[in-house]
Amino acid sequence: MDTYITLKTFTYPSEAYILRGKLESEGISCFLQDELTVQSNPLYSNAVGGVKLQVKEADLSEATSIMLAGGYQPDTDSGPPKFYTSLAKFTSAIPFISQLPE
User: pTM (2 decimals)?
Assistant: First the structure.
């Protein structure tokens, strides 16, 4: 079974179609995760983390080079926002909250 990895995240599916088409024309298997969810209601895009263009793990380096050659910038920070990490550090110092299960 192939493992798929998110290559790039877009706000709307229409933004991802060009890159997906280019990758497929180069023979790279890919798909858009959460495409139909965002098409049904565009306001869900932020809730689901955007439309994710996913490629096979084996094709990641080739897909990345095609993406960069096309002028797309790679996603830089896929971790939680800094606000949440600083909030977690602050709230973990509160005795009652630090005892709550995760």
Answer: 0.71
| pLDDT per position as a tens digit, 55-83 | 999 999 999 999 999 999 888 765 666 66
List C-alpha distances in Å: 69 to 14, 19, 64, 73, 87. Answer: 20, 11, 9, 10, 38
Q: Using an 8 Å Cβ cutoff, are 25 and 63 in contact? A: no
Rounded to an integer, what distance in angstroms lies between the CA atom of residue 8 and that of residue 68? 11
Q: How far apart are CA 81 and CA 42, in angstroms?
A: 22
**Which is it for the CA torsion 96, 99, 100, 102, positive or negative?**
positive
Tokens 């977690």 found at: 88
